[in-house]
Amino acid sequence: MKIPKGITVRFILSVVAGLATSMALSLTTRFILYLCGLFPAPFKPLFETKHVIIALVYHSMFAMTGAFVTALVARDRARKAIIFLGSKEAIMWLLGTIFLWKHAPVWYTITKAVIGIPIALAGGLLYKLYTTKTHKEILKDTSMHIKDVLKLVIGKFRKRKGNVA
Question: What are the domain boundaries of the chain?
Answer without folding.
Answer: 9-134
